[in-house]
Give the backbone structure.
Amino acid sequence: MKNVFIAIGGSGAKVAEALVRLLALGCPTRKQNGVYTSAGDTLQLWRIDPDRSAGAAVALQNAIRQYQDMQKHLSDTSQAGSLASSRWAMDLDTRIRDLDPLQLPRAADTDNENKSLGGVLDSQYRNNLKRSTPLLAPFYAKKDLEVQIDRGFYQKPFIGAAIMAIFADSLETESSPGGKEAGLTAFHNNQTNFFVCGSLHGGTGACGVPVMGKFLGARKKANPTWGWRVGACLLAPYCVPPQPPFKALKEGEEPDEQMVRDLVKAHVDHPAFADLSPEKKEELVKQILHGFYADPADMEARARQGLAYYKDYSADYFDELYLVGKPEPDKLTVWSNGGNSQRNPLNSAEVVAATAALNFFTGAATGDSQSYVVGASTSDMDSQKMRLRHLPKYRLGAAGGGEEIDPEKVFLATAVMRHLLLHQIRWDVPAKNWAGIEQLRHIYMGNEKKQEDDQELYSRALELMAGAMLSVIAPNQTIGWDGTDTARISEYLSGDPTKINEISGRMAKRFMRGEPTGALDLGNSLVKLTTVEFGKWFPTGTQFSRGEYLRYVWSQVFTRIQDIA
């Protein structure tokens, strides 16, 4: 199945990062021949954001690079182009489609040079007005029309909505900048899941999600035989930034040049001003003075207004609509107004949103056109100290029998599989001397070079999977996690010989009985298996693939995981 994740604004990009990490560590999207997998499905990422240098985009690209490396280590063919593919996980197009809503068609060379709302609307593209100001003056203040928006829409969706509407219109034309990047023709007559994600309370996401939903929904309605599905996840306030380094002016007040220069000098060492040109530093000062930044005090009201808009105008464009937020938003420690300095850690709410995307990509439904489902947190959950057991379970859809997938069990299966591959196979001796793992023994027997190469490739791939697990939930890398699950997973990932022997001992077979001596647990989940069982696991077929073998072992472990009574 073709899947397209459309990340709008910084929050959307962070959810895309979480999705890539979850796919890397093994989250399945279907069940094929009894094996849980996502291999064979494809994923393309679009990023819609005027902030081309956003820190969230950098973090997403790093996640994609690591995913590509992992897939390369598990692939049996040399990977050409930008497709990260193996039989372990979903095929990922590593080229992010960067769709800048400020990159619009031009009717003249001077069009869209000024990156402000007024500058865009004064262009001659589909606009017969020489100047838009007389028409817009009753609706926008002068500062709204003049503020530079190449770093986002600063919690002002009323500015971004006009830009997004023009941008969406331009996607209809394949020769436009956005039309070339999106390449929608490739999806004509192709079943595709489009999933749009952004914030309710910001600027870019708040205006971009409904506009893109309407655009895709209208095309779907006009072409029902294509088999398109359109879903979205709306992020209500889940983290709040600190206040900017100085206060905004009162409404109607204007800064003079000396005030701007003095503030630049006073705050030159603030991270938000780092690496900016003198002109950009002055522009940032003016943005703060005029109130163009995300104000924590306004977030809840913005989210309420956004939800009301979806109820009245936009909900019908989506097959599935998810909402994720926190009752007590996490507090960020570093203020930024976009750009490379805005590097927020991955948040547990963004991981929840990524599971919503997985649920949608599997074809699962949470209700019907006449109903909706309201999910509630469990009573023992602290949204700022989450455990894996608090993540929502998702379903594999009709093709997978509607089976539920528990993310906690996914993490446990990946950690145990890694231990089995690295520490229960005698890579240090020739395969001809292996015992109790006959089918894998035959693959390497007489081919020590392949054995040596595969050991190295498995080791690299599994190290990247371990990194993906920790990058999602480790408290020193993320926000909103308890840390207990990280401590347990770290034991399974440990290279300490004492810890390795302890874990191996729990999988030893009891004398004269087939059961293991112990169990491996994580949160509310545990698995009992023996190394004797592991030795018999091998996928069917005549062709051996590193990724396919890994996926088969993972699926066998996952199948055996049970809830702790």
User: Anything to note?
Assistant: The chain has a mean pLDDT of 89.
